[in-house]
Structures are given as structure tokens and as C-alpha cells.
Predict the structure.
Amino acid sequence: MTHPNMLEIRDLHVYFRGYEGVSRVLDGISLNVGRGERVGLAGETGCGKTVTMKTVMGVLKIPPAMVPHGEVILDGQNVLEMSAKQLLQIKGTRISMIFQDPMNALNPVFMVGEQLYDVIRFAQGDSGTGRKRFGTEIHDRAIAALEEVRLPDPERILRSYPLELSGGMRQRVLIAMALVNGPSFLIADEPQTALDVTIGAQILDLLSELVRTKGISVLLITHNLGVIQETTERVYVMYAGQIAETTPTPVLFKNPKHPYSQGLLASVPRLTGGEIAEGIRGTVPDYTVAPSGCRFHPRCDYVMSICSQRKPPSFPVEPDHYVGCWLYGKEGGSK
Ligand SMILES: Nc1ncnc2c1ncn2[C@@H]1O[C@H](COP(=O)(O)OP(=O)(O)OP(=O)(O)O)[C@@H](O)[C@H]1O
Ligand code: SF4
Ligand SMILES: [Mg+2]
């Protein structure tokens, strides 16, 4: 039976052991992506977006990372219990990812064509034994994938090494690789951050159009609220390893409820591509000594005594709109 959600993260805790002590980065986050749904995960730098993505994709090294509690159900299977082989199988075919830095994701010593052919062959169950078999079908699919991401002269691109391409072209190649096997789910982590603003915007427009037309479920991770507004139907706002709020995307922009979301929205006009929370005093906490209860409490103008004592659960405020803030619970007031 098909699982109703493409991704379900339940009360996920991720910690790192280091010289300074234990960094408690993710403090019980829960998040769903329905089939065909485009969901955003927004939050300022260092709030744990990439740690979340890496846990979902099974690329977080455990240890040194620890997952003391929580579940990650990807396409009906618990990622934390999967073998490396099982993970590789679903990642190469049904689920794709695009990382923050396009250069790290491409191998500089192989031509683009070799890397793209490998991705296509992998999904066909060929794990590399047929390296020399450059069938025309694979070549044609590679060309079609590069054309789809509007790269000019795809034959030349196939023969190029990653360093011979611009950052924008490399990111297009990565999008082509991510989509070539027809995945049903794509996780994209700040696909535009390494690029200049104009090129980054073009990449996002392209990605947004492709996932819409193909009906692919998406988890789009970004600190850029403009991108969230354009591309996603529902959004999670994350603060310091906790989910602050989740709502249909248009509602966040009209009616943000969590004090952190309100601060974020208020600082949007000053968005320059760097920190998003310029309008909020203070900084993201040190995770070795993370604030107790609601982690936003040292920065919050509405802080109450309960806030530092207990982590707020997710309170429903209207259909599909949940807020992790005591202001919306029975114990708190209302705002
Ligand atoms: N392997 C690791 N070991 C120790 N700490 C880590 C590790 N990976 C991430 N962290 C810490 O976890 C926190 C969250 O990092 P993460 O990369 O998830 O942030 P982010 O939300 O993706 O930020 P950005 O918007 O800058 O990409 C940071 O404080 C980071 O230092
Ligand atoms: S729970 Fe308390 S500290 Fe946290 S955002 Fe709400 S009012 Fe502010
Ligand atoms: Mg990141």
C-alpha cells in the first residue's frame, strides 16, 4: 500500500558530540510532505535545515552525530533503520536531492557526461560494470535532460569538466541529474545560495516550473522567504532546531502567528541574501547550551514564565495552521 505521505519526520532529535560538549541541534522536529505537495522549510542560517536534510537523505554520519529520538519515514520506510544499500537504491531512483554547493556535488575529475550517464545507468540497475557501454539510449536521455534545464549545446556540456562550466550551468547540470530518473520526491537545499542573485533567481524559476509540471513532491529548504512564497504551497518555519510554525504558504505572509515568524516577515524588506532575522534582536543560540523550553525565549518580546520551563507543543490556530508557542495554548495568553 502506498504511504499517504512522501516524508514524515516525527519528533526528530539530532545531537553532535564535540570538544565543547554535546550540541543539541534538532530538538524534536516534526514535518510532513504529502504526495505531490511542495513544502518549504525556512529559517535563518544555522537553525538546522541542512542537518534535517542530511538526516532524511541518510548522509549524516552517525556517529559523531546521534539520533537519540525520532523517526524519519521516507516513502513509507524508516530511513534510520535502512541499510546503506537500501538507501542508495531509493536515492538513485525515487528520491533526489540538490545540495547547497554545486561544486561539491560534482566530481571535478570526470566529465559531466560520465557523471550523468552513471546516474541514468544506476537507475537501470547497472552499478558500473558496464562503464564502457555508452548506449545511444543513455546518451539521448542525457541530452534530453540537459535540454530540459535549458542548457545550450548539450553535446558540448556532456564533454565538459565541471570546472569549465559557470556556477549557474553547474547547478543546471545538477538539476538535470536530480530529475533524469523521474523521481517522485526532490529535496533541494538552498539551490541558489552559491550563485549570484540574478542567476540564482533563474535557477529557482526553472526548478519551480519543472517540479510543478512534473507533479514532483518537493521539500525546498531556504532562508529566502521570497522563494518560499513563489514555489511552495505549505511552509514550516524553523528556529534553532525547533519548528515554530507551519501553515499554508499564503497564510504565513498574511497572518504569521509565532513571534519569530512575525519578526522574520518584518525583516523581509531588508533581505539582502544574508541573515534573514535582522529585525529580531539577538542571535541563534549556541547549541551546547541551548535555551530550555522554547528556544526563542531569550529573543522574544512576549516571553512568559512557562516559556523557559517547557517546550511548547504545536497548537492548532486554524485549519492546517499550527504554532509552537505558549501564547496559543491554554496555559498561555492569546496574542
Ligand atoms: N557535523 C556536525 N558536527 C557538529 N555540529 C554540526 C555538524 N553539522 C552541523 N552542525 C551544527 O548544526 C547547526 C545547524 O547547522 P545547519 O547546517 O543545519 O544549518 P542551516 O540551517 O542549514 O544553515 P544555513 O542557512 O547557513 O545553511 C550549526 O550550529 C552547525 O554548526
Ligand atoms: S513560547 Fe514564549 S518565548 Fe516562545 S515564542 Fe511563544 S511567547 Fe515567545
Ligand atoms: Mg544549510
